[in-house]
């Protein structure tokens, strides 16, 4: 089991545990915000399962039908996860509005707060771990999963604060039960914002978005530094697919240079680029530099 798969499994296991805890606490207390958090965690579990499938599939080597590999499956995974989050947010808002219209008392607030605090702490640790692996392995699916859990940390903390406010108000004879569905709606709004950001991040590589300006600038610098003999390069293009970077460009070399020398230069450039972008695939088209023809007057 590689690092990405192991990280995805950790996310799956933690989400299962938290769903059970939140469901029990939510139905025991009657808190719609806790139940909404349980639904959010259920979506996190689905996302974690999708991420687990994606990281396994994306690591498969290229085959006859997929000569460029399977890396984009992670981007597809991210898009699906984002859509699931939007679905969950819609359900949370529906339930919260219903709670505003027909309010009901909240019980066992202490247990609810405890579960939310535990959830925030667990997800904080798992999210940090997923981000670390995602960054080191350049995994879009794990990054999306980590973003799920990061949102869960903030929303769980928000629910805990809301329930704490209701409990404190009750000590002084006041009722702030309306705070519970309002917190749930705030949670849903945050989730929608998260989902839109994730959807954009995951979708762009599916339509062959270029590398970042910083990566393109670095690639240009490497080409220039590795090949002082070249008169230049042009038509630098790139696209992203999961952790892959597909790069191609035209390299202009002196016409008297041998094929072997040109090949060595291309190898040097490829290795230098891959040293900075380990999962890059570089394609170089070599062409001779144009020679200025002597004028007829010069010949005479």
TrEMBL record:
Q: Where is the Cation efflux protein transmembrane domain positioned along the sequence?
A: 9-206
- Record GO cellular component, one term: plasma membrane
Q: Which UniProt keywords apply?
A: Cell membrane, Ion transport, Iron, Iron transport, Membrane, Transmembrane, Transmembrane helix, Transport, Zinc, Zinc transport
The record's annotation in Pfam families points to:
Cation_efflux, ZT_dimer
Topology with regard to the membrane? Multi-pass membrane protein
Lipid biosynthesis is among the record's keywords = no
Task: Pinpoint the Cation efflux protein cytoplasmic domain residues.
Answer: 213-289
Q: What is this protein called?
A: Cation diffusion facilitator family transporter
């Amino acid at each position: 089991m590689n690092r990405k798969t192991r990280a995805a499994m950790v996310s799956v296991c933690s989400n299962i545990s938290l769903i059970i805890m939140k469901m029990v606490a939510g139905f025991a207390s009657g808190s719609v915000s806790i139940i909404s958090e349980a639904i959010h965690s259920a979506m996190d579990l689905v996302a974690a399962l999708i991420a687990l499938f994606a990281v396994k599939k994306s690591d498969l080597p290229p085959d006859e039908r997929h000569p460029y590999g399977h890396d984009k499956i992670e981007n597809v995974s991210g898009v699906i996860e984002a859509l699931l989050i939007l679905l969950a947010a819609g359900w949370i808002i529906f339930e919260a509005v219903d709670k505003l219209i027909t309010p009901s008392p909240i019980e066992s607030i202490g247990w609810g707060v405890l579960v939310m605090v535990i959830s925030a702490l667990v997800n904080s640790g798992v999210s940090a771990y997923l981000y670390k692996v995602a960054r080191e392995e350049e995994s879009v699916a794990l990054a999306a999963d980590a973003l799920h859990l990061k949102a869960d940390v903030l929303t769980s903390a928000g629910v805990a604060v809301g329930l704490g406010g209701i409990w404190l108000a009750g000590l002084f004879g006041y009722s702030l039960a309306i705070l519970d569905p309002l917190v749930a709606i705030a949670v849903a709004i945050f989730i929608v914002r998260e989902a839109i950001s994730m959807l954009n991040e995951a979708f762009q590589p599916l339509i062959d978005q270029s590398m970042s300006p910083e990566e393109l600038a670095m690639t240009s610098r490497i080409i220039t530094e590795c090949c002082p003999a070249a008169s230049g390069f042009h038509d630098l293009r790139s696209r992203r697919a999961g952790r892959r970077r597909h790069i191609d460009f035209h390299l202009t070399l002196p016409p008297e240079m041998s094929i072997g020398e040109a090949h060595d230069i291309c190898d040097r450039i490829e290795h230098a680029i891959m040293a900075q972008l380990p999962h890059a695939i570089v394609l170089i088209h070599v062409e001779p530099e144009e020679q200025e023809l002597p004028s007829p007057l010069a010949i005479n």
